Prior knowledge:
Blueprint: H1 2-23, H2 25-52, H3 61-71, H4 75-86, H5 106-114, H6 131-148, H7 153-162, H8 164-171, H9 177-180, H10 184-203
Amino acid sequence: xxxxxxxxxxxxxxxxxxxxxxxxxxxxxxxxxxxxxxxxxxxxxxxxxxxxxxxxxxxxxxxxxxxxxxxxxxxxxxxxxxxxxxxxxxxxxxxxxxxxxxxxxxxxxxxxxxxxxxxxxxxxxxxxxxxxxxxxxxxxxxxxxxxxxxxxxxxxxxxxxxxxxxxxxxxxxxxxxxxxxxxxxxxxxxxxxxxxxxxxxxxxxxxxxxx
Length: 211
């Protein structure tokens, strides 16, 4: 009985192979496998991007591109600051009075005009709820901080949160910045912005090229 079953299986297999050969499936199957593995590979590499982009949206690309180019600031850093400061809410206002996408104080914006970094006749420091205006002042301020701390992005990010005087004090300590920071909020802020910066670089690579 077992012999008959095996013989029947062999005959069935031979018939299946003959049918596949007749229809050319031996040429199609390898192609199907290549396509299948290609789809699996695409899904594996794209899944992180598809899953994470809703948590790291990117808006106002034209404004970010224009302002970051004008002040030579990394546009992905600008996006990271916006994400951490306001979560892309142009109407956001803190209890301290910081306004807009990049949560700028009106006095800080006025300082950028006074220092000649922003043209006050074109961008009103009192109109920080306007997305383009806010991003322009925010990029100018980031450039000012980066230059103030001799090109250190980390010190600039910390100062954006805690203010110049505090970071100057921390900078004088004989230790790394993250160890010198005495404000837990600023420690967390520095980590958040740096992580968001990396995410935006990964998720939107090439977005600002040629803009």
